[in-house]
């Protein structure tokens, strides 16, 4: 017990247990957040259709799932391909294009999922909207990845991005863009429209929390056993 290695191992064990406990608490906090998001999503989906111009300035709540009607005009050459998307086991892109409301606000419209090509150098051909869209749709706001939320824009044609960071995109295009995406709800839409408003459920976060806490308990038990052996050896040496 008088050796530096003993105290170093003890400190590292305590630090590891602390990290595991904090990871478990973080997952429980994420589970609570997901529960609130799901509750707000249920409220939004039960509401009646609203005119988009009535809510574009509403930033006090999560707008995911809000049902709206609107008229949007396409802005030429303002197209995006959101990279690394997976839909029904297929890898590809989420195609988005810039539109403008009759009131002058700029909004991103989701064209849909487009399969990738064999080579990343070759981008898929997308049938972009050339005429105004008039009809119904729903809104969603993508959550940012805390480890990587930068736009990571590539000046390809159309532009390829790694994350949908609307603030950075607005800075690149030098315009103000509403902080949500409009997903049209129309029969015979040419592309699939993935809908995952809550990427990970509350139950999964709780499951991960249980795993972290279990690892912390297991490490604590091993640490206690190790300490008891160390005390016994020290006692024998003193005798």
Spans of 5+ residues with little confidence (pLDDT < 50)?
none
Report the total helices.
3
Main beta-sheet strand count, sense and barrel state: 5 strands, mixed, barrel
Overall structural class, as computed from helix and strand content, comes to: alpha/beta
Average pLDDT score? 87
Strand order of the largest sheet: 2-3-4-7-5
Measured distance between first and last alpha carbons: 15 Å
- In sequence order, what are the helices and strands, one letter per element? HEEEEEEHEH
Can you walk through the features of this model?
- Strand 3 and strand 4 form a beta hairpin.
- The mean pLDDT is 87.
- Helix 1 packs antiparallel against helix 3 (202-238).
- The protein has 239 residues and is α/β, with parallel strands linked by helices.
- The longest helix has 43 residues, at 4-46.
- It has helices at 4-46, 166-173, 202-238; strands spanning 50-51, 67-87, 90-101, 106-115, 133-140, 159-161, 177-184.
- The protein starts with a helix and ends with a helix.
- Strands 2-3-4-7-5 form a five-stranded mixed β-barrel.
- It has three helices and seven strands, in the order H-E-E-E-E-E-E-H-E-H.
- Helix content is 37%, strand content 27%.
């Amino acid at each position: 017990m008088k050796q530096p290695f003993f105290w170093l191992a003890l400190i590292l064990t305590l630090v590891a247990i602390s990290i595991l406990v904090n990871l478990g608490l973080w997952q429980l906090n994420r589970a609570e957040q997901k529960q609130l998001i799901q509750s707000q999503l249920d409220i939004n989906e039960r509401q009646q259709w609203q005119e988009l111009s009535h809510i574009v300035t509403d930033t006090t709540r999560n707008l995911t799932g809000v049902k709206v009607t609107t008229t949007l005009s396409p802005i030429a050459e303002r197209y995006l391909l959101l990279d690394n998307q997976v839909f029904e086991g297929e890898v590809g892109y989420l195609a988005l294009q810039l539109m403008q409301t009759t009131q002058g606000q700029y909004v991103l419209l989701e064209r849909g999922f487009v399969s990738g090509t064999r080579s990343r150098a070759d981008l898929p051909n997308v049938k972009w909207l050339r005429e105004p869209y008039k009809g119904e749709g729903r809104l969603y706001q993508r959550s940012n990845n805390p480890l990587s939320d930068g736009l990571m824009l590539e000046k390809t044609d159309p532009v390829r991005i790694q994350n949908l960071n609307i603030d950075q995109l607005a800075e690149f295009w030098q315009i103000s863009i509403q902080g949500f995406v409009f997903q049209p709800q129309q029969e015979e839409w040419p592309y699939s429209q993935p809908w995952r408003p809550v990427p990970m459920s509350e139950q999964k976060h709780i499951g991960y929390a249980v795993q972290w806490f279990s690892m912390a308990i297991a490490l604590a038990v091993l640490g206690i056993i190790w300490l008891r052996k160390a005390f016994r050896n020290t006692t024998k040496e003193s005798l």
